């Protein structure tokens, strides 16, 4: 049974996400202390793949994931899931809400339920711990009265119960996770795919605008952009881009080749089905058929058969 | 011996240009009354090719050439020459400048020597005729004292002599001529080529800017753009574009395929060596090698061999 690493400890949103990411095959989930450790295990071949948070995480630093993805040998994403950021409030069965005096969780999680806490636990002491799962463990051990945790935590601490479920100040907050592995055969295009890349460009006027124009001119919808300075290389920036489409699509392939020509370097971070399965509307001039027709016309012009 | 049509009559700049355009093969030059007549003779196969003015002409309407090139079956340019707009002042040997009372020429030619006339023939009567060659013919027939003509006219009227040569108010005025024929094998790329196309686009905000971005993003230098309304199709415009490079070049081919996808229609009007032989500097990211490298990288990414 293949082993799949994830950012631990067990009982976090990342475990919950990694279960979903591996739902269609038998896998043993192995918690790692950090994202770099999980990815190193993939690179070394100790595990087949890893589940890592990439966007809006509540439990791990997303920049850490981006850096860990690109600082070493190539890894590619093959699947994504999006988990709603909604917490359970866990406590021992004999503890009711009005008896809760101490509440523990990861600082990011506490930030996401501040409104709920003000309304429901205005007098409780708030304690920051290293993860939402660690909070549940501490409550199970009697250190605090209640934990703000991922729903999956209850499976690891069956002695606790949920005082409240679906707690979240922002209703549609969500975290995106990726299943990453070493380069290999890509997931088939589904018509509702996302492609992730990391491009390094020099810090010159217009460079980024031109880079984005390579996408927009080909009718490619950009869903995320994030810049990070390149370590030890002043004046150069890494741009993490997510956009609609699969590298096997003509418009995406041509755009990526254009970025490869334009940028100092481009790293492919994967083409995979979008979690929401939303089919991107493709402009008439950017469809597979349009690219095929144009290529045939160009070939005929070059051969002197058409004008 | 192949016949080559040109905008007549004999003795004009177009004859002079067509001689240069056909200098590397034996050809019989056949004057036509109009550019459309010359191009119709090419389309019908009566002649092999035609020499026509396309830019800054002093003797024929350039829009007429553009319309005639695109209103009917495809024709492509295979060669260009640029002729300096400098005139001879022709007269009978017994006529000196101070005895010239009447001067004839084509109105465009007269406009180009107005300054010289004011200075040298301030009292002469100026007469507009249908061509610079017709002016020379009329002088030979004794109708006027002097003609403002193309240098080549003297070969047709050896009984005349040049009172003055190299007459031009603007020193670097020039006219560009093309040798056009039916589609067939294209001239080989030389590294200093020009490509001409006609693209039809609808009249929407940003359409033209996006079209030009397809060229600029690929490092292609636009040397001429001219718009003409499309007859019987309100809101659509034809754009005549000349840009550096050969359709066989990777950057030009990809840009043309992009325009083909983007525009309502694109007509290829030829790739041919530039008259000035000026090699365009190609940006590193737009070189043949850069395109080849990017295509190989993309193929490896798509095959899952690289990331």
Automatic annotation (TrEMBL), chains A, B:
Superkingdom assignment: Bacteria
Site (Essential for prephenate dehydratase activity) residue list: 175
Catalytic activities: prephenate + H(+) = 3-phenylpyruvate + CO2 + H2O
One annotated GO biological process: L-phenylalanine biosynthetic process
Residue ranges annotated for the Prephenate dehydratase domain, each copy included: 3-182
A single cellular component GO annotation: cytoplasm
Gene3D superfamilies found in the cross-reference section: 3.30.70.260, Periplasmic binding protein-like II (3.40.190.10)
InterPro entries (alphabetical): ACT-like_dom_sf (IPR045865), ACT_dom (IPR002912), Chor_mutase/pphenate_deHydtase (IPR008242), Preph_deHydtase (IPR001086), Preph_deHydtase_CS (IPR018528)
Keyword Nucleotide-binding tagged: no
Domain ACT stretches: 196-273
GO MF term set: prephenate dehydratase activity
PROSITE patterns, per database record: ACT, PREPHENATE_DEHYDR_2, PREPHENATE_DEHYDR_3
Pathway of action: Amino-acid biosynthesis; L-phenylalanine biosynthesis; phenylpyruvate from prephenate: step 1/1
Claim: Lyase is one of the keywords in the record: yes
Keywords: Amino-acid biosynthesis, Aromatic amino acid biosynthesis, Lyase, Phenylalanine biosynthesis
Matching PANTHER family: PREPHENATE DEHYDRATASE P PROTEIN, PREPHENATE DEHYDRATASE-RELATED
NCBIfam families: PRK11898.1 (NF008865)
Listed name of the protein: Prephenate dehydratase
Species per Swiss-Prot/TrEMBL record: Saccharopolyspora dendranthemae
């Amino acid at each position: 049974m293949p082993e799949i690493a994830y950012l631990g400890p067990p009982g976090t949103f990342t475990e919950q996400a990694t279960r979903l990411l591996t739902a269609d095959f038998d896998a043993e989930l192995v918690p790692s202390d950090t994202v770099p450790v999980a990815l190193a295990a993939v690179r070394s071949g100790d595990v087949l793949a890893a589940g890592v948070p990439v966007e809006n995480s509540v439990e791990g630093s997303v920049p850490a994931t981006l850096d860990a993805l690109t600082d070493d040998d190539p890894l590619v994403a093959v699947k994504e899931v999006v988990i709603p950021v909604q917490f359970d409030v866990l406590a021992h069965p004999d503890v009711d809400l009005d008896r809760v005096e101490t509440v523990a969780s990861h600082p990011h999680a506490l930030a996401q339920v501040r409104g709920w806490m003000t309304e429901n636990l205005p007098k409780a002491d708030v304690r920051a711990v290293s993860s939402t799962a660690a909070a549940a463990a501490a409550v199970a051990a009697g250190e605090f009265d209640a934990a703000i945790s991922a729903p999956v935590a209850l499976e690891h601490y069956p002695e606790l119960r949920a005082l409240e479920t679906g707690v979240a100040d922002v209703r549609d907050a969500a975290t995106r996770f990726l299943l990453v592995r070493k380069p290999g055969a890509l997931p088939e295009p589904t018509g509702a795919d996302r492609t992730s890349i990391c491009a390094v460009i020099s810090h010159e006027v217009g460079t980024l605008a031109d880079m984005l124009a390579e996408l927009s001119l080909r009718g490619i919808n950009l869903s995320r952009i994030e810049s990070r300075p390149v370590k030890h290389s002043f004046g150069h920036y890494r741009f993490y881009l997510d956009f609609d489409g699969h590298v096997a699509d003509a418009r995406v392939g041509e755009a990526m080749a254009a970025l490869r020509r334009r940028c100092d370097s481009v790293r492919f971070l994967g083409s995979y089905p979008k979690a929401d399965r939303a089919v991107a509307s493709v402009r008439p001039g950017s469809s597979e058929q349009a690219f095929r027709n144009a290529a045939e016309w160009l070939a005929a012009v070059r051969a002197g058969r058409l004008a």
